[in-house]
Automatic annotation (TrEMBL):
<dbReference type="Pfam" id="PF00294">
    <property type="entry name" value="PfkB"/>
</dbReference>
<feature type="domain" description="Carbohydrate kinase PfkB">
    <location>
        <begin position="6"/>
        <end position="285"/>
    </location>
</feature>
<dbReference type="InterPro" id="IPR011611">
    <property type="entry name" value="PfkB_dom"/>
</dbReference>
<dbReference type="GO" id="GO:0016301">
    <property type="term" value="F:kinase activity"/>
</dbReference>
<keyword id="KW-0808">Transferase</keyword>
<dbReference type="InterPro" id="IPR002173">
    <property type="entry name" value="Carboh/pur_kinase_PfkB_CS"/>
</dbReference>
<protein>
    <submittedName>
        <fullName>Carbohydrate kinase family protein</fullName>
    </submittedName>
</protein>
<keyword id="KW-0418">Kinase</keyword>
<dbReference type="InterPro" id="IPR029056">
    <property type="entry name" value="Ribokinase-like"/>
</dbReference>
Amino acid sequence: DVLVAGDVFLDLVFAGVDGVPRPGTEVRARDFGIAPGGIANQAIASRRLGLSVSMCSAIGDDAAGSWCREILSNEGVDLSFVVAAAQTSATASLAVEGDRAMVTWDAPRPADSAAPFRDLGDPKSIILYLDGREIGGDEMRTAITRGAKVFADVAWDAGETWRRDTLEALAGCHAFLPNAVEAMAYTGTEDPHRALSVLAETIPVAVVTQGAAGAIAVDSLTGESAAVAGVPVRAVDTTGAGDVFVSGFVAATEWGLSLRDRLELASLAAALSTTRVTGSLSAPTLDDIAAWRRA
Ligand code: ADP
């Protein structure tokens, strides 16, 4: 069982954009998708990998929020621990030649959106999606004391706002899975391998994802280290790739796989998700993964 905790966004994804618009100009997208994003990415991706998923979040009491709830519930995500916020946060994501630019709207949260989190049962794994405001905060401390494996993932821009001293708070997590840009900013290093070594000094399972180049990881609990190359796919939109990666890693951890096999499943799930627009609704099912392996 997996509990996902963090913010849900409504993602508007514009793929195949020639550049970022400057004031007074317009750019056209070749493809477009709309989907629940943020922690909804990990929720839906984990469900599609066969895990049972509950969500702890605040979702807006508006049209966007109702739509996100409907999609999540159709995917089989348990929403009993979701509280109502006035509005749903939103992201416009522009996929520009393999990279992306984003505009986000962080809706104000209810005073204590983490409250239901304290009453939950005993999930095997908890996925925490954090931004600079939450590190070492209530949700994280409560999660760590639950006895479940806590997998922490960070928001896209968190590297800029995070400080090294928060590594101590993260050390109580089972695993931390930032992308290379975040990992380097966070550890004050200029090389993903160096960033991984610094993270591995304090965090039991440290993973650094490197986009199309794959991922590297150290599991200090088993003494394994592993690296996988990116899976060659025709990527149209990398929104949520890191989130799908986390879900793959969590699923493979629950199945008791080796570090290398955990990285392989995570990379394959993430790579397949880049072949279609949006993060959550492009997440592959177990059947999609089996079909890729047979081909
Ligand atoms: P984030 O999405 O959090 O910024 P990354 O860009 O590192 O993180 O992507 C996460 C993972 O998604 C990578 O480790 C890789 O497995 C997969 N991935 C991302 N982009 C591609 C791509 N263009 N081709 C294949 N796999 C990709």
